[in-house]
C-alpha cells in the first residue's frame, strides 16, 4: 500500500482547486446516513461495504481522492482500489474530521503479511484460520472490557462471525487436504505459528496502541471491523492473482467472497446505529 498518496486537507484542497471537477473522482466511503449528515461538496458516495461490488462504476483513468470520517476506512478502500488496478489513488488523512478542522489521526496504514504464491490450499487455509482466530480473540477480550450489555452483545456478535468463518475454513480444509486432521489438531497446527495478526495481516494490538480513542464507541468498533474485513478482502484478492495453482486460487477467491459478505453485514450494523 506504500504507493497510495496520503494527502493532508491543505494538499487535497490544492489538488481539487487545481483540477477540473470532471478530471478526478472525490469518493466518500462512509455509510449513506453519514453522507447525508455532512459531506465534502462534489463527493460521490460508494460505502466501503458496497465498494467490492461497485468497482466498475469508477473510472480507472481518473485520479481518486478517497475519504471517510477519520481516514481509516478510506485507507482500506484505497488499498482495495489499488489492488483492482486503480493507479492514481489518494487518501485524505484524517478524513472529513480533519477537513473540517477537527482533531485527526495520522495515516492509518494496515500492513499485509507475506504471500509467495506457491502456498498449497491447505497452507492458505491454515494461515487464514490463524488470522480469523486472532480477530475473534480480540473481540472477546473487548467484550470482557465492555461496560454495557449492548456493547458486550456487539463484540460477541462480531466474535461469532469469526467463529462461523473458522467453521467454514475447517470444512474447506477437509475437502482440500490430502490427509485430514481432527478439528483440534487442525486448530493446534494453525495457531502454532500465529502472531498478533488478524485477517489480512492487520497487527491489532499495535494498531489500537497507535490510535487510542479512535475506536472507543460502538460506531468506532464497527469502523475498525470494517477496516479489517476490507483489508482481508484486499489481501485474498491480491493473493488470488498471484496464486500458482488453480486449487489455491479457488480457495482464496472463496475466502474473498466470505469477507465481502462480512463487510456488507457490518455496513448494515452501522446503519442501524445511526
Automatic annotation (TrEMBL):
Rhodanese domain sequence ranges:
20-104
Where does the source fall among the domains of life? Answer: Bacteria
What Gene3D superfamilies does the record tag this protein with? 1.20.1260.10, Rhodanese-like domain
- The protein depicted here goes by the name Rhodanese-like domain-containing protein
Q: Which organism is it from?
A: Pseudodesulfovibrio methanolicus
Taxonomic lineage:
Bacteria, Pseudomonadati, Thermodesulfobacteriota, Desulfovibrionia, Desulfovibrionales
Amino acid at each position: 500500500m506504500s504507493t497510495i498518496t496520503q494527502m493532508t486537507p491543505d494538499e487535497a484542497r490544492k489538488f481539487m482547486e487545481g483540477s477540473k471537477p470532471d478530471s478526478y473522482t472525490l469518493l466518500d466511503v462512509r455509510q449513506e446516513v453519514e453522507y447525508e449528515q455532512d459531506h465534502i461538496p462534489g463527493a460521490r458516495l460508494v460505502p466501503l461495504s458496497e465498494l467490492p461490488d461497485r468497482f466498475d462504476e469508477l473510472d480507472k483513468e481518473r485520479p481518486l481522492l478517497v475519504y471517510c470520517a477519520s481516514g481509516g476506512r478510506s485507507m482500506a478502500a484505497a488499498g482495495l482500489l489499488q489492488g483492482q488496478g486503480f493507479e492514481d489513488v489518494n487518501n485524505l488523512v484524517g478524513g472529513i474530521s480533519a477537513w473540517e478542522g477537527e482533531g485527526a489521526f495520522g495515516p492509518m496504514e494496515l500492513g499485509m503479511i507475506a504471500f509467495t504464491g506457491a502456498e498449497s490450499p491447505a497452507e492458505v487455509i491454515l494461515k487464514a484460520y490463524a488470522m480469523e482466530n486472532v480477530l475473534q480473540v480480540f473481540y472477546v477480550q473487548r467484550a470482557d472490557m465492555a461496560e454495557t450489555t449492548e456493547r458486550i452483545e456487539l463484540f460477541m456478535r462480531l466474535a461469532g462471525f469469526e467463529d462461523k468463518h473458522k467453521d467454514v475454513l475447517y470444512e474447506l480444509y477437509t475437502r482440500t487436504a490430502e490427509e485430514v486432521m481432527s478439528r483440534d489438531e487442525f486448530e493446534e497446527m494453525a495457531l502454532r505459528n500465529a502472531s498478533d495478526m488478524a485477517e489480512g495481516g492487520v497487527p491489532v494490538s499495535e494498531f489500537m496502541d497507535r490510535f487510542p480513542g479512535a475506536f472507543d464507541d460502538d460506531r468506532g468498533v464497527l469502523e475498525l471491523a470494517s477496516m479489517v474485513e476490507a483489508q482481508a478482502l484486499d489481501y485474498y484478492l491480491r493473493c488470488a492473482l498471484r496464486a500458482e495453482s488453480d486449487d489455491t486460487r479457488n480457495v482464496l477467491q472463496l475466502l474473498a467472497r466470505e469477507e465481502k459478505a462480512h463487510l456488507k453485514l457490518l455496513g448494515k450494523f452501522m446503519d442501524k446505529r445511526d
